[in-house]
Structures are given as C-alpha cells and as structure tokens.
Design brief:
- By secondary structure, the chain is an all-alpha fold.
- The protein has helices at residues 2-8, 11-24, 26-41, 50-73, 75-99, 102-119, 122-128, 135-144, 146-160, 170-183, 202-211, 216-236, 239-245, 250-265, 268-278, 280-298, 304-332, 338-366, 369-397.
- It has one domain (10-187, 214-397): Growth Hormone, Chain: A (Up-down Bundle), CATH 1.20.1250.20.
C-alpha cells in the first residue's frame, strides 16, 4: 500500500492519470451518441452504426502516426493534439445535428476517433514514468482511472443531451468538446522521458516495427489485445441500438453502457497485481475465456438483465485480456523500439476493431442481436484454439 501511495506521489504519474480520467469521460458519451444519432440521421437503418464505425476507423489510421509523433515530440504534445481534434469533432457534431447532416456527423466522429487514438498511449506513458518492477501496476492503474469516466460520462450525457433543444443530443456533443479542453490542463505538470534515438535509425525502426509482429511473443500479445478489443467493440457498439429496437429506453441503454465501462476498468485496481502474481499470459487468456461467457449470456435473451449481465461480464473479460496483452507487449520490446512497435500494435488493434464495428451494424440489422452474440463467442473460441496451438508449437520447437 505504501508503494502505491508512493506511485501516486509521482508528479508525472499523477498528472497523467488525472488527464486520462478527464479525457476518458468523453468515451461513454461518444459511444451512446454514435449509435443513437446515427439511428436518427442515417438514411438506412443498416448505416446506423456508421458514425461509430468511422470513429473506430479513424483510430486505426491515427494510431501509428500518433505513436511516431510522440516518439519525436513527446507524449504531452501528442495528447494535446488529440484533444484539439476531439474538440473540433465535437463542434462539427453539434453542427451536424443542427443541420441534420449525416455525412457531417460521420466526419465529426472521424475527428473524435482520430483524437481518441492519442489517449490510448496513456497506458504506455504510465509505464515510462515509474520503476520497471511497477510497470504492470502503473499500466493497470492508468486504465482504472477510466472507472471514474465510466460513472461520470453517462451522467454528463443525461444532464446535457437536452440542453440545446430543439436539437436533441447536441448538448452532449458540446460537453465532449469542453471535456477535451479541461483534460489537457493536468498535462502542464507532466514530463515523460523520450527514448534516445539516432536519426539514421528512424527508417529502420519503422520497417522493423511491422517485421517484429512475426516474433512469437509480440505476435501473441498483439493478437490477444486485438481479439479482446475487436470482440468487445463488436458486441458493445450495437448494444444501444439493439436495446432501443427491443423497446427499451435510451436512458436504460446509457446505464447499461455505464456499467459495462465500469466493468471494463474497475478490475484494473487489482489486475496489475494479478499479473505480477500469475503472469500476463494467464491473465490475458482468462480474459478471453470470460469474453466467451459474456457472448453466450448475451445470446440467451434481450431483457434488461440480459444486457446488463452480458455487458458487465464482457467488460471484465476485456480488462483481463487487454491489460494482460499490454503487459506482454511492454515486456517484449526494447525502449528504443517502443514508439514504432506500439504504433504498429495499436494499428492492428484498431484495424480489427474497425472491422468489428462495421460488421456489427450489418449483423444486428440483418440477423439480430442473438446471432451477433453467437458469432462473437465463436470467434473467441476459434482464436483461443489458434493461440493455444501456436504456443504449443513454440514450446515444442524450443
């Protein structure tokens, strides 16, 4: 406990975790808004998840550039740039609702997705400002800060969604812009060290980053993180749409998302300690198994309790899978290579998430929630078999 207090007395870690908490509050708001405003403005119901899908696509495209930018200009500069993009996206979204412009709404979510891509590197920055032995705990605690965002974000949505009547939901978008401005203020006290890199090595680092994905340890870490994130997105994004389509109120959908996000980040208070005790690989695989349980639960019905239960279990599974995989990757690469490899890692994760986001809208509108849930479970089971086979082959050949 004294060590954890010492961790929070670290000025850089404290600034990072406060900034991440504030900026992360926009995530649940954007998640609910993407589905509901998409459903309201889309010319066809199958396009209702397009704003959220475009937001995920932007995250994929911006992941590697942000990582490289941070490698050259520093974490703080990269986070500030992300906040500016989020602010502009929020302003565009309010205008899109005022003019009933679906394409502008998609463009707004693209900007917010690009800005949000920078926030993903808070977890890596946390490990860079603490002692090596505490890196898994720092990474885990950094993600736990989003628990506050999970609780506060939906409340902000409920409090602001009708503030700019008669334009429904415009006030919630405006609130995300204000959050972006407030979130960069704690970064004033933050100083994250940058790895020393030779100019002559830059091109080599970029090409090696993708070649490194063939390394068994790195490939496994990236695969688990991408699977956990992709399936989570596949189930989470269409949840508000599925709930409203089954006669449930948008406030209940917002509350389900709130508890899902709470479940995503609440375990982070102890996930890092579990990793130190049992190892990152075991925790990550436990997370994938838990996601499978969530998918099976989601397929059993469409009552509020089914949505609450399955999304909460999904959040816990994502936490173990994603944090475990992040710790695996952190341990597998050198300091000098981290900017490039982390960018490649988050690009792959965002690519899988983008495919899941686009596919989710088509599947839920064409085949329904139950089929979507069953496909999620089947995908995780198949992937776990492949990961287990690869691990067995690696051990047998060593």
């Amino acid at each position: 406990m004294n060590s954890i207090r010492h961790l929070f007395h670290n000025r850089n870690f404290a600034g990072l975790i406060l900034a991440n908490t504030i900026l992360g509050a926009a995530f649940p708001i954007q998640l609910v808004l993407g589905g509901l405003t998409g459903l309201a403005l889309a010319p066809d119901p199958t396009l209702a998840t397009l704003p959220s899908s475009v937001q995920t696509l932007a995250g994929m495209l911006a992941a590697a550039p942000f990582s490289l930018l941070m490698g050259r200009r520093g974490r703080r500069f990269g986070f500030a740039c992300g906040a500016v993009l989020t602010l502009f996206g929020a302003l565009c979204a309010t205008q899109a609702l005022a003019t009933q412009n679906f394409m502008l709404l998609c463009a707004a979510h693209f900007l917010m997705g690009a800005g949000g891509a920078s926030y993903q590197y808070f977890r890596f920055a946390a490990g860079e400002v603490v002692e090596d032995s505490w890196r898994p705990v720092a990474i885990s605690l950094m993600l736990s800060s989003l628990l506050v965002a999970a609780i506060v974000g939906p409340q902000i949505f409920i409090a602001t969604k009708d503030l700019m009547q008669p334009t429904a939901f415009a006030g919630a978008y405006a609130a995300t812009g204000l959050i972006a401005v407030l979130g960069v203020l704690p970064l004033v006290i933050v100083r994250v060290p940058r790895p020393q890199r030779k100019d002559s090595d830059r091109g080599q680092r970029k090409s090696w980053a993708f070649a490194a994905l063939r390394s068994p340890a790195i490939k496994r870490a990236v695969g688990i993180a991408a699977l956990a994130q992709g399936v989570m997105v596949f189930l989470m994004i269409p949840t508000p749409i599925a709930m409203v389509s089954n006669g449930l109120a948008d406030t209940i959908a917002s509350d389900v998302i709130r508890w899902h996000i709470v479940a995503m980040f609440a375990p982070s208070f102890f996930t890092g300690f579990l990793i130190k005790r049992f190892g990152a690989n075991l925790i990550a695989m436990t997370g994938l198994a838990t996601i499978t349980v969530a998918a099976v639960g989601a397929a059993t019905g469409v009552s509020p309790m089914h949505f609450y239960g399955s999304l909460i279990i999904l959040g816990v599974g994502w936490n173990f899978g994603f944090i475990g995989a992040t710790a695996m990757l952190d341990a597998a690469v050198s300091e000098a290579d981290k900017a490039a490899v982390q960018g490649a890692n988050d690009t792959v994760i965002a690519l899988v998430s983008t495919i899941g986001a686009f596919a989710a809208g088509l599947v839920v509108s064409s085949y329904g929630w139950v089929v979507l849930a069953l496909l999620s479970g089947a995908a995780v089971v198949c992937a776990m078999l492949v990961l287990w086979s690869d691990r067995t082959s690696s051990v047998g050949s060593s």
